[in-house]
Amino acid sequence: MPRRSSSTGSPTTPRNRTPQPVRVHRRSFGDFVKAFLAFVALLVLLVGVPGALATQLGWPVPSTWDPQEWLTNELSVGTFLGILTFFVWLAWAQFTACVIVEMKAALSGVGVPGRVPGAGPSQLLARQLVAALLLVGATAASLTPGLSQLGQSPEGNQRGTVAAAQQTPGGGLFAQQQEQAASTAAALAEQASHAEAAAPSTAKDGDTKYYRIQPPEGRHHDSLWEIAERHLGDGRRYKEIYQLNKDRVQPDGSRLSEASLIRPGWIMEMPGDARGGELVEMPDEAPDVSPEVQQQIHDYAKTGGDHAQGGGGASQVSLPEQRPAPEQRPAPDQNTGHQQQAPHATPAAESASFGLPEALLTAPLLAAGLLGALGRRRRQALWQSALGSVGGRRGMEPPTPTGDAADAQDALLVGADPEGVRLLDRSLRGLAASLAEESRPLPTVYAAWLSNGDLHLQLAQPAGKPPAPWQLGQDQTFWMLARSDAERYEDGDTAAPYPGLVSLGTMDDSRLLLNLESVPGIVSLSGREADRAAVFASVAAELATNGWSDRMTITLVGFGQDLTPLAPNRLRHLDGIDDLIETMEAETRQRRGALGAAGHDSVLTGRTGPAQHTRWAPHLVLLAAQPSADDAVKLAELASDAGRLGIGYLVGTETDDLPGAAWEMEITGEGKLLAPLLGLELDAQLLPTAQQQAVVELFVQADPEHGPDDPANTPPFLVDISEQGRPAVYARLVGPYEIIGLDTPDGERSALLHEALALLLLHREGVHPRVLSSALWPRGVTEDVRDALLERLNAWLGTDPDGSARLRTDSTGRLTLAKSVVSDLDVLRSLYHEATQGRGINSRQVRGRLLTDALVLVRGPLLADRPEGRYRWLTHEIIDAQLPLLVADIGLALSAFHLEKDRAEKAIEALTAALNSAPADERLWHELLRATHATGDTARLQALAADLISRSGARGLPPRTEALLDELLPNWRSGASAVG
């Protein structure tokens, strides 16, 4: 159950600050006097002040609207009084607005009152007067428990102080209120424990008892699990409380459902054997219960009946109600796959037969993040190698993974759901942008559910109606976005609102993402060490590579496998807990001070506005090692305010009593992630040690600093470029797609067969059958449909003269093509390799011919005429970066070949041809400038410089290009100014 540490700095283990029920005292004569005085004060300020101003000083509206007359009038005492009158009216209007805002919040009982701009002291005064006025009414007692305690005795006001400290945003009082809240928390916990121990337990079994939910203590909310643990002796009996109260109307008109958070002021009927001094027995009336609460309990008792006999379970993070999934039927063979089975659904037998790691196959968001990060790393290596190498291109061909690394890469290709990541990212950013347009703050989100393509956000508390196209879910704490609406969002520049969301697992075909950043305290994870390590690795890898965050710091402690290669800019390993505590103490102080200086109450409000991209990035701490008792206390103190500061803690523990743990989870040996307090039982998302090592190996191999020092670069597949090496099947991929040597297949099947052949041609090392089917049918496909396609592909490609099939299966089960099936990309690579590392090294004439032949093959971008909606697997490939670099290298080599003989025009022709396919390559432009300068035509060089300047746009020319122009054309800047 959630426990929070004392913030007093005591070295002892912090007390269990279990929230206690609200004590609603009888209204005294003093309360009525305060309410009367508040009413008089409000009457004077709201009615008397404007009346006096109107009769004595006049209305703020001028009698004439002639601006010229205002400007020509002489300054006088009357003018000064008029200006002063205007500002007094303005102050009255501001105070009136504060009263309206506070009154609305008090009567609705939902959320923290909005802030009136520039009205700090005025709004505070309005809040106190409204609270005093409502103190004697049932409205304040039942719907605004935080306000109902203002103005009472110190003993009765302690909890109200805690709530006020959390609800007062920004301002200079924030640090003081936080300190006051921390100091009263320990005393409150001690008083509560003594009261519970001393309370007599005289109820008889079978008596009807009731419990009234109290307001949150800071950010710590009461829960059914804690209520059951305190009063029934076992937190697991929370379901009995839920069954007794499900769907019954509460005093505020709402109901308890499977997905609702219990709210302050609600009443819970308790089982007959419940014990504890806070319970209220009815019809007996306890003397310390107000008449208003007695009436509420009487009314609530009337709603009890047979309706509460159903099963179910209450939860803090609960499964959303799902819309019926569309019926899915197996599609015919020629279908493109849009109506196939659910994404990545694969029979168990198939999974076992191919042996790919299930941990990556069943984690679509994690796989998509890893695949995207791996692609970016490989592209970075290509560019660094191209810009820094001399002679050959050491990094032009990334190493081909083998063994476990190859299986891990295939599993990433099969399991990844990049479209789901894109929609999630756009949806969250779109929501943030819409709320910013309405000047509304981001709500605190505890979790997100992906269910049947729809996105459900579970809020910490109701936040009103969501902006369109979002809709309210099953209750006020759920905001839902249908997939069809999410697909209409476009990319925007809004900062990522919830970067701390991370996948934990699935339940009933719904995937849960927990927002570690918003948890009000520590999230603890118990279980065997190996099982905990698999959860921690999965969380760390997804946080480091996910596609719905901008910036983030992830601190890892106690990890056996170094995961830094996944994201060196995000991940950092610390040696031990002492280093962690020292680091987080400093950062907690820094963030708390920054929030106070900026006037924000949490990082959520700091993620909107002009500075949204420069601060408020989350810091998530993953502590896999078991902390000592003293270290656990220190961590609990640091985490007590972490949710507001954008810091999240996930801590491993061997027991289930970690101090400061707000949410407790357990990973079982069967891969189940249990969180009884949250009502969750998930199929956990794991990344076991073997898969960790394989994934890290993929990233290490892609590192530009990793690999042999030999600059030679041998393509994975070389073809015979002589006349005797004419292939049986020749596919032209560089430009429009054409196939020579095969009959055109039937129209309905042609697109799939062409796409399958292109995939195999771009992967001469072999393609796993599941990777092939995942690429052709991203939404999933049945095994029989895939096998039928492979049979047709085999029949279409035919056999070689010796009778061997051109579509083969290697020893690892991967599909490969015979050497008689060749693409122009294979020929292009072979020609360049032969010209720069083969026969062309010793023969200038051969080198020139080979380079010229290679450049002639380039007819445009890869698969230039591919139909829309197909070949989406190319987004996972780096061929879009490899091909332009290869074309640029050919153009540069051919240009150098011609310039050796002072044939500048030939060099310009070669460079221009290469720029048609690689227009962004800075090296080509530099060589074109040099070749043009070699012609001696200054006007031509000036025209080329002007063209470069126009292409650069607002960003301007790169520094290297500017330096080269300074050397070749010293007056180019004056020409640029003229062009501008």
Please describe what this structure looks like:
The protein is an alpha/beta fold. Helix content is 46%, strand content 10%. The chain contains 34 helices and 22 strands. Strand 8 and strand 9 form a beta hairpin.
In short:
It contains 34 helices and 22 strands.
Work out the number of β strands: 22
User: Roughly how many Å is the radius of gyration?
Assistant: 35 Å
How does the overall form come out from the CA principal axes? globular
Low-pLDDT runs: 1-26, 137-206, 306-315, 325-353, 390-395, 708-712
Discrete helix count: 34
Helix share bin: 40-55%
The neighbouring-strand order within the major sheet is: 6-7-5-4-9-8-17-16-15-10-14-13-11-12
GO biological process, one term: phosphorelay signal transduction system
Keywords: Membrane, Transmembrane, Transmembrane helix, Two-component regulatory system
Domain Bacterial transcriptional activator: 823-969
Pfam families: BTAD
Properties at a glance:
980 residues, alpha/beta, Rossmann fold, 14-stranded mixed sheet, three-stranded antiparallel sheet, 22 strands, 46% helix, disordered N terminus
What is the strand and helix layout of this fold?
Blueprint: H1 29-57, H2 67-72, H3 77-108, H4 120-134, H5 138-143, H6 145-148, H7 154-167, H8 174-198, E1 209-212, H9 224-231, H10 238-245, E2 267-270, E3 280-281, H11 291-302, H12 348-354, H13 358-361, H14 364-388, H15 403-415, H16 418-437, E4 445-451, E5 454-459, E6 471-472, E7 478-481, H17 483-486, E8 501-507, E9 510-515, E10 522-527, H18 529-545, E11 553-557, E12 571-574, H19 577-598, H20 603-606, E13 619-623, H21 629-639, H22 642-645, E14 647-653, E15 661-667, E16 672-675, E17 680-684, H23 689-702, E18 729-732, E19 738-740, H24 747-761, H25 769-776, H26 783-797, E20 807-809, E21 815-817, E22 821-823, H27 824-837, H28 844-856, H29 879-899, H30 904-915, H31 922-934, H32 938-952, H33 959-968, H34 972-979
Parallel strand pairs: 10-14, 10-15, 11-12, 11-13, 13-14, 18-22
Antiparallel strand pairs: 1-2, 1-3, 4-5, 4-9, 5-7, 6-7, 8-9, 8-17, 15-16, 16-17, 18-19, 20-21
Helix pairs in contact: 1-3, 1-4, 3-4, 7-8, 9-10, 14-15, 14-18, 14-23, 14-29, 15-23, 15-25, 19-21, 24-26, 27-28, 28-29, 29-30, 29-31, 30-31, 31-32, 31-33, 32-34
